[in-house]
Design goal:
30% of the residues lie in helices and 24% in strands. It contains 10 helices and 30 strands. The protein has 2 domains: 210 residues; 351 residues, Neuraminidase. It has 584 residues and is an alpha+beta fold. The chain has a 5-stranded antiparallel sheet, with no helix packed on it. A 5-stranded mixed sheet has the order 11-12-13-14-18, with no helix packed on it. A 4-stranded antiparallel sheet has the order 2-30-29-28, with no helix packed on it.
């Protein structure tokens, strides 16, 4: 029990104030917890990832009762102040010693409780800001998502402002208690009651700080601090994964004619990984381009013309191979290198949701790129949304190749037959087990794969398709686990892996963000009709014994030696997957 510097026990008013601080804290946690549960589904916005990222659902029910009580107490006090009622209930036990002033109007006698109520509101604001800030921080660290940068900074600003207001209020209140003008309201004027009130405020403040510490512990306990490549579990002995290069926010991969690796990222940068390893065996990486207007996720290299293509959110650039050579040699800066490119496509949708463009060069030597839906579930009128587009390498001849695709982060062509296959991420907030992510084959140009009206094997989405009509849509070739985040895919055409993996489809699953239990966080292999786990281990266990991401697999590329290269956005790494019959 906090002491106020006096020998007698603390006045009951102090206990009341401590209870106020505690109940305010619980109410703030409850509000945020319910927000985690319901706001995302009501808003339909994917920008609530930070709040909705596997919240502690049980917390809402535990704190509901105390929160209602806290709210009733606060409303009782506030209404009495507004109406000028006598404080014979709320105010009496707060100020029953005020020099016989019990019958004074409530505005006079309830100044202190009103000020305490104001501090309580500031405390709640501060607590909400703290929780939002650290939930956002955790999500940004784990996923590398750029869409939350503004919210992250705003949350930090609110957090700082709330604490400044709270501290200012406490200082002002202490000043009031130490002012000669206010001593006549304190029994005896000897400071006894004053010290008890200050002690109560300090206790409430300590409760507030203790709760913040608990939030920090819970937030940072949930997460996997590193990825041990030796812990990756393969479906067959002989496979091994090792660190190839360190590349921050690594996503899309493409290889040049000289086996250099070009890496698109979730930032406005592109990296170049050398074809020659360093002394440690890790291949050095350097900035190739820095300062694009938006995320530079899509990269594709044309070995015939020695041209690199880069797709940002709104533009597609082409760069001659000489630009890569100059940056590698240090004669051209990554910032100036962007000016050496040609904008072959401009004016693509500028939406925060599904903003990444995946880019590949088809066997017909045309450029293919994805444009996702600008939402979780909607029917936008722009024909470019929810499609895979294609065009000539100079930007001419733009046309829709396939439509009805919510969001594709991976496609490639079957060396046997030449058809495109692509992955698709299904919608959120339907259930833990549907809709599925999909693997699809495009047998001819112009097919519609159903989004937003149908998913999977032409299952109607009742939230937007009440007629349940899926006629004319192309069903999924293969259903993949719901919310697994099926991303980059490749047909394995190397010779290093055993024969059963030849011409099989390898798919990187980025992993779910709101499913319980999580799904994805692995590499699967498929023949087009079934799939099996090829490699797992990107989902670990945190200090709270809950599953937490250790990595985020994104894209796959085939190296000239037959090994598979894998990008990991969370770890900021490129890994190499090799095989040895001896298991070495």
């Amino acid at each position: 029990m906090c002491k106020g510097g006096v020998s007698k026990p603390i006045d009951p008013n102090t206990t009341h104030e401590m209870a106020w601080g505690l109940l305010g804290t619980i109410m703030a946690a409850s509000i945020l917890s319910f927000g985690c549960l319901w706001i995302p589904s009501f808003s339909g916005s994917d920008q609530w990832y930070a709040l909705a990222y596997q919240p502690p659902y049980y917390l809402s029910f535990i704190v509901l009762g105390p929160s209602i009580i806290s709210l009733i107490l606060f409303l009782d006090l506030f209404i009495r102040l507004l109406l000028g009622h006598r404080c014979d209930i709320t105010g009496e036990y707060l100020h029953r010693h005020l020099d016989g002033e019990l019958q004074k109007p409530c505005v006079t006698r309830c100044w202190y409780p009103f000020f305490h109520g104001l501090l309580c509101v500031l405390t709640i604001t501060s607590l909400v800001a703290v929780i939002i800030f650290f939930y956002t921080l955790r999500y940004v660290i784990e996923s590398g998502t750029t869409g939350l940068n503004v919210g992250f900074q705003a949350g930090f600003a609110v957090l700082v402002l709330a604490h400044i207001m709270l501290l200012s209020g406490l200082v002002h209140l202490f000043h009031m208690f130490n002012s000669e003008n206010n001593l006549n309201y304190i029994p005896g004027g000897d400071g006894t009651y004053k010290n008890q009130r200050v002690a109560g405020l300090l206790c409430a403040t300590f409760i507030h700080l203790a709760f913040i510490i608990c939030v920090l512990v819970l937030v940072f306990a949930r997460g996997c601090n590193s990825l041990d490549t030796s812990s990756i579990d393969f479906s067959q002995k002989g496979f091994k994964m090792s660190l190839y290069a360190n590349v921050p926010n690594a996503r899309s991969l493409t290889l040049t004619s000289s086996n250099q690796v070009i890496v698109g990222t979730s930032k406005n940068e592109v990296y170049l990984v050398s074809a020659t390893p360093g002394a440690s065996g890790i291949y050095p990486a350097q900035l190739l381009f820095a300062g694009f207007e938006y995320e530079a996720n899509g990269v594709a290299y044309d070995t015939t013309s020695s041209t690199l293509f880069v797709a940002t959110r709104t533009m597609i650039y082409s760069f001659p191979d000489s630009v890569i050579s100059q940056v590698a040699a240090g004669t051209l800066s990554p910032t100036n290198a962007i000016t050496q490119g040609t904008v072959i496509m401009n004016g693509l949708p500028n939406d925060d949701t599904h903003a990444f463009r995946y880019l590949r060069i088809g066997p017909d030597r045309m450029l293919y790129f994805s444009v996702g839906a600008p939402c979780n579930l909607c029917d936008k009128q722009k024909t470019v949304y929810s499609t895979i587009q294609r065009m000539n390498m100079d930007g001419s001849g733009l046309a829709t190749f396939a439509s009805g695709i919510r969001f594709s982060m991976g496609f490639n062509w079957n060396p046997s037959g030449g058809n495109m296959w692509f992955t698709e991420n299904g919608r959120e907030w339907l259930s833990n087990y549907r809709p599925p992510d999909e693997l699809n084959e495009v047998t001819s140009a112009g097919l519609n794969f159903g989004f937003p009206y149908c998913y999977g094997q032409n299952v109607p989405d009742g939230d937007i398709n009440p007629t349940k009509n899926c006629t004319g849509y192309t069903p999924a070739t293969l259903n993949l686990p719901a919310h697994s985040g099926a991303s980059g895919m490749i047909f394995y055409t190397g010779t290093l892996f055993p024969s059963q993996f030849q011409n099989q489809i390898f798919i990187a699953e980025y992993g779910s963000w709101n499913r319980n239990p999580p799904s994805g966080y692995r590499i699967v292999v498929s023949n087009g009709t079934t799939y099996d786990t090829f490699a797992s281990g990107w989902l670990g266990t945190d200090m709270a014994s809950q599953q937490a991401p250790c990595g985020r697999p994104v894209d796959l590329a085939l190296s000239s030696d037959g090994s598979l290269l894998l990008s990991d956005e969370l770890r900021g790494a490129i890994y190499s997957i090799t095989y040895s019959a001896l298991g070495g």
